[in-house]
Amino acid sequence: MKSPSVRTLTVLIALLSLVTITDAAPLFSATSGMVSYTYREQFAKDLPGTLDTIRALGITDLEFSNLFGRTAADIRRELDRRGMKCSSFGVSYDDATKKTDEVAANAKTLGATFLRVAWVPHEGAFTPMLTRKTAEEFNRIGRELREKHGLTFVYHNHGYEFEPYGSGTLFDLLMALTNPADVSYELDILWAKFPGQDPAALLTKFGHRFRLMHLKDLRKGVKGDFSGKTDTNNDVALGTGQIDLRAVLRAAREAGIEHYYIEDESANIATQVPQSIVYLKQLQD
Hints:
The protein is of the alpha/beta class. The protein has one domain (65-266): TIM Barrel (Alpha-Beta Barrel). The chain contains twelve helices and ten strands.
């Protein structure tokens, strides 16, 4: 993957200038952030230059899921130099459970207020027993992060949690068993759509339990399952895939989502990320 070139950024600016200004209110009035995973290959090679690329796109809010071989203090200095911030820091389930103080210290050094986990290790299908164990661990981690470190713990869905259970899903069970004071959620809309859920309906159902959101779209024609895995090139530019983003953004506004992050796992970020930014800016209510 290549970072957007100067030519690509110039095209983006030109496209933005063509967006028609009317009396209609914008549907998406927030400013989107960026998930570091979108630029994972670039960050691994050139962290300062990659931050410059993202800053040139008009994005200053980041969710880091990796330190890319640097210290949290190193990254914080680079962010501060550019007037950028890290609002959320993603870590593995194992590190969250076994190195809670260490990852909390890194999150605070980065300037993050949220500490996020996006995958619970498991083999085969996610189960009710594992859901209950996960909820217990999340409550413990979340309480410790809140009481000891002043951080908010969030869990990012990844699809496998939507296995049917009773009259609902295991995600419903996880929500019911986690303490709202200690466990919040980040909605990844692709990983809600992929296993057959309606992201907008989830936002309406659970409201303020969702604090953060990953803005993504799923290629048309792709049929999902409960694996939590799909080809990364099934990530497409916002507005070109299966997800009803207008409905999602309206529901997100009602739910009070605090941070929106663009995430694109594909090999096409040089063209798709600018396209997604333009799409968000031209949406009207």
